[in-house]
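Co-fold these.
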Amino acid sequence: MTKTSDPVALNDWQVVGNIDEISSGKRRNTRLLGQYIIVEMDGDRPRMFEANATGGMGREHPAQILYGHVWTTLGSPAKPPLEMPEFREDGRRLVSCGAVTVRASPLRIVENFLDMSHFPYVHTGVLGEEPVTEVTDYKSEIRQPEDELWATDCNFFQPQAAMSADDGQISEYMYRVTSPFVTVLYKTCPVVDGAWDLIGIFVQPREEDLCDVHTFMLVIDDVSTYVDLVHFQHKIFLQDRSILENQLPVGLPLSPKDESAVRADGSSMLYRRWLREKGLRFGTYRGGADTQAA
Amino acid sequence: MTDLFPENSWYAIGGSKMLDPGAVSPAHLFGEERVVWRGEDGVSHVWHNRCIHRGMRLQYGFVDKDRLSCRYHGWRFGGGGKCAYIPAHPDMTPPGDFCIPAYPSVEQDGLIWTTIAEPDGAPPDLSGFGNLAFCRSIVVDAGPDAVARAAADLESARPVSAGITAAGIFPVETLVLALQPLDDRKSQLHVLIAGVSADTPATRRRYSAWARQFRWRVENNGTPQSNSQARAAS
Amino acid sequence: MQLYDYVLSGSCYKVRLFLSMIGREYETIAVDYYPGGEHKIPEFLEINPLGQIPVLRDGDLTLRDSQAILVYLAGKYDAGGTWYPADPETRGQIAMWLSFAGGELMNSSAARLHDMLFYDFDIDKVRAGARAALRVLDDHLTDREIDGAGWIVGDTPTIADIACFPYVALSGDGGILLDDYNAVRRWIGRVKKIPGFTVMPGIHAN
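Predicted complex below.
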C-alpha cells in the first residue's frame, strides 16, 4: 500500500523505534501507515523523513523522544502523546523490550491487550488457568476531555502475575487507551502494596495488516534481572502473536453485529465504538474477501 | 468450481482413520476454510473455520469431550456448532444464536465427505469396488482441473463420479482417486486401493510411492509417463 | 547442569523439551539474544565461538549445537536407552534426521526470525526451502504410518523427533502453514502427548 489517506490515523503520534536502536549515526528504514520513512538521531535530536522515490530523504516530519522511544507523526496531531507521570518516579525501572513484527491489524493487537478472558487459554499457568476463568464485572468509560478509554476495577486470579511474583494472586488491572494504537495497563505490583506496575505497547502500523509492536515496562522490581524481565514479556507477547496472526477478518470489524460479544468484552466493545465515532478506517474491516460469510 | 466439480457434489476431505478422536484439522474446499474435528464420542464434524467471538481460526482449537474449544477464549461448541459454554461467564447459558456454521458431512467408504452447497443426494457409492482400503492423502501444487486431467490420462482410467477416478496402475488392484479441490492452485488426492491384498502395508507403500511420482509429474508439467515407466520407477 | 537459553529460541527449546521429558533439572542462564545481541559479544564467543545458543554446561563439559546436546543428554542420562538406541542402523537413521533438523529444516527458523525479529533473509527462498523440507518429512511420516509406526525413527520417540519438533511446530510464525502436511500434524499431536511435554510461545499444549 502507499501512505494512507485516513486523517484519523495520520493526525496522531506513533512510535517508530527505540533510542537504543537509533543511536547516533544509525538509521532505521521502516514504514508508517504505508509510507516508507527514515528515522535517525542527529546528535540527541530525533528526525523523521519520508523516503522519496530513490530512497533518499524526502519531506521531514516532527519527531520527539519520550519514554525511551522515538515518536513521530505524518500529520498534525490535536494532542501530544500520552502522559505517564510514573515515568518520573524514583524506584521504577524502564525496560524497553524491543520491537516484534506481527502480521495483524494494529487494532486487533490493541484489543487483545485489553482482554482478560484469554489469560487461562493463551497464557496458561502464568496469567490465568482453568478452572478459574470468570471475568467479574468491571467498568469501561471514555474520559473527557482527555479522550482516553479507561477500564477499571478489573480483577483476575493469576498463577504467576509477574516476574517478581512467587505465588498466585488476584491481580487488579486498569487499562488505558490513549490513541487507536497506544495502550498501557496498570497492574498490582507484587512487590509494593498499593503501587502499580505499568506495561504498554506502542504499535507502529507499517501497513494495515503488518505492525511492529514496541513494548515497554515501568516496574518496581529490584530483584529480577533486566534480561529476565524482557524474556518474561517476550514470552507473554509471543503467545499472543500466534493468536493475532490467525484472526479473521484481518481488519477489525467495528459494527456490534459483526462478532458475538459478552459482558467480559466490555472494553473491546467500547474500543470499537470509540474508533467508529472517530471515523477511523485504517486497520478496520470494510467488507470484502478477508472473511467468509456463513 | 467448474463443470468437473459441481457445487452440489460431495467431496472427500480425508481418511476416516486419519482423524482420531480428539483431533482437529483444517480442511480447504474451493478456497473456503473449514475445520474438521472428531469428538471423544467418535463423531466427526465439519464447520466454518472461524470462531464467532473474535474470529480465531478454530483449527487451532482443542477437543473437550464432545465439544470443540476455541483456542483464544475457550468457548466450547457442541453439536450443530452451538455454543455450550463461555468460560468468562461460567454460570451463563450462552445465547441460542451463538453458533458456528456447520456443513453437511458424512463418513462413508473410509472417507470423510462434505459439500459446498446443499448436496444432491448421498456421497458417491464406492461399495462396488470391494475390499477398499485407504492408502494416503497427498497435496499436489496444481489446480484441480490439471490434476483431474492427469488422473483421467492414467492407464485404464474411468470416471466414477465428480472428482472420483478409478484406474488400474498395477496388475492386481484398482486405484481409486478422490480429488479434493483446495483452491485454484492446489488440490488434494485421497488415494484408495481396491483388491484382495489392498490393505497390506506392502501394497499401501507401493501406492504411496506411486502417488509421489504422480505428484511430481503433475507439478513438473509433464504429461504422465506410460505406466511401465511409472512401475519401473516405484 | 546449566543451559544458556532464550525463551523464544526454538533450538534452546529442543534442549528444554528433552530435559523435561527425561526429568533432569538444570539452571537457566538467560542470554539477552534480542534485542541485546548478547550472543555475539566477546564474552559469549568464549563460551561458543559460533555465537549461537543453546550452550550446555555439565560439569567440565561445554557443548554447543542443539543436536549435539541431545546426543550427549540421551547417551548420558537415558537409562532406558530408548531415546538414542545403540544399534548402528538406528543411530545412522537418527543421525540423518538430526542433520535434517540442523540443515534443511532451519529454513523454517530463518523465516520465523525474518517475520518476527527483522532478520535479513530472502523470505521467499527460505519459505520455499521450509515447505520442501516439510514435504519430505510429511512423506516420510506418511509411510511410517503405513508401516504402523508413529515416530521419525523406530517405534518409540527418539531424539530425532525432539530435534525436528520445534521448527516444524513453529513454522506458522514464519508464515508457513502446516495445513498441507497431514502426517506432520498427526505426529505433532503425538509428540504433545509424550510425558513431560512442555510448550514454548507459538506452540499450544494440545
